[in-house]
Amino acid sequence: MKKYLEIVLVVLICLAGIILGFIKGINLNEIQLQTIKIISIVCIISIAYCFIVGEISRNNSQMDKLWSILPIVYSWIIMIMGNFQIRLVIIAFLVTLWGIRLTYNFALKGAYKWKFWEGEEDYRWAILRKKKIFQNKFVWALFNLLFISLYQNFLVLAITFPAVVAMNAANAFNVFDCVALIFALVFLGIETIADIQQWNFHKKKKELLATGAKLEEIEAPYNKGFNTTGIWNRSRHPNYLGEQGFWVSIYIFTLGIGTNHLFLFNWTIFACLLLILLFLGSSTLGEAISASKYPEYKEYQKKTSKYFPLWKYNG
Q1: Half-sphere exposure of 282 (CA within 13 A, CB side)
Q2: Using CA of residue 277, residue 278, residue 284, residue 287, what is the dihedral sign?
Q3: CB 275 within 8 A of CB 67
Q4: DSSP state for residue 213 in the 8-state scheme
Q5: Is 109 helix (H, G, I), strand (E, B) or coil?
Q6: Stronger pLDDT, 68 or 285, i.e. the higher one
Q7: Count H helices, E strands: the chain?
Q8: Neighbouring residues of 224: CB distance < 8 A, sequence distance ≥ 6
């Protein structure tokens, strides 16, 4: 019941943010509209690519591979169309750092191959395909089209819309921009540390299991099966915290452009809120899988904060 209440609460917050954002919208000029048109064309091409290649290859991680690359492309197009305004240069720089980190992390898992349609598929797609509703190939193809290819591509496009709004800058670089820059770097640091610690943990676990020992026989804390070391000792999803915080930070750049706001909302807030909702669903699925595999995971859920590293897990 708690899980569903959490989802309902986030949905209500999303709706409230979207409504408030559109009540106090920001008028876009001709260059901004042209920029949206250009990046939308790239998005449409990506949607078609992800769906067609995903269906033919039966590897549905095509969008996963592009998730970290497309925002870099979009932010650079926005920066160029915006005539290299300092605010846009900083956003493009931050997004590029973010994209390099995430692409490298996904590459370590074997996601990218010279045969671009191949590579390691995210394990969650295989698990979803086994569910009864998705045994029907038409239903799965529809899911692939609407959620994996269309919705996720649109969301990746939408999280760069704050940069488009930032093109219409009446103010020079200011305190809002400084706050956004600092927060973006902090959250980027959090997810980078989380990724390194997660990779090192599972690499060591695999080495221990390669000796022929069973999971419960190897040394602690690896015998739990899931990571409870470092920042993961205080947060179940520090990488998700960093990811969501980073894109909220990019949104903060829109607050310094000299346009009046209603309670600090503008229409681009909807992308941040939808991203938060996506990660809520993703974390719920991931935790259900972990709880089914590892006996101690439910205890870890009870004692450890989902996102913010508030208290230490002593399991």
Answers
A1: 20
A2: negative
A3: no
A4: -
A5: coil
A6: 68
A7: 13, 0
A8: 294, 296, 297, 300, 315
Mean of pLDDT values over 32-47 = 95
Backbone torsions φ then ψ of 235, nearest 5 degrees: -145, 135
What is the pLDDT at residue 1?
A: 47
The answer to whether 153 and 46 are in contact (CB under 8 A) is yes
Other CB atoms within a 10 A radius of the CB of residue 29 amount to 10
Lowest mean pLDDT among 38-47, 74-83, 241-250, 259-268: 259-268
Both tokens assigned to 128: 């979803």
The whole-angstrom separation of Cα 221 and Cα 227 is: 8
d(CA 155, CA 283): 17
Distance CA 90, CA 260 (A): 22
Q: Report the C-alpha gap between 164 and 187 in whole angstroms.
A: 22
Q: Residues 111-146: pLDDT tens digits?
A: 888 888 888 888 888 888 888 888 888 999 999 999
Mean pLDDT score, 193-210: 93
CA distances from 266 to 14, 18, 262 (A): 13, 8, 7
75/91 Cα distance (integer angstroms) = 7
Q: Dump pLDDT digits (tens) for 219-277.
A: 988 999 999 999 999 999 999 999 999 999 999 998 877 654 544 677 888 888 889 88
Identify whether the C-beta of residue 71 lies closer than 8 Å to the C-beta of residue 160.
yes
Q: Residue count of the chain, please give it.
A: 315
Of the candidates 53, 55, 63, the one whose C-alpha atom is nearest the C-alpha of residue 138 is 55
* Residue 274, both tokens: 């939808």
Identity of residue 116: F
Structure tokens at 144: 């692939």
8 Å CB contact between 191 and 242: yes
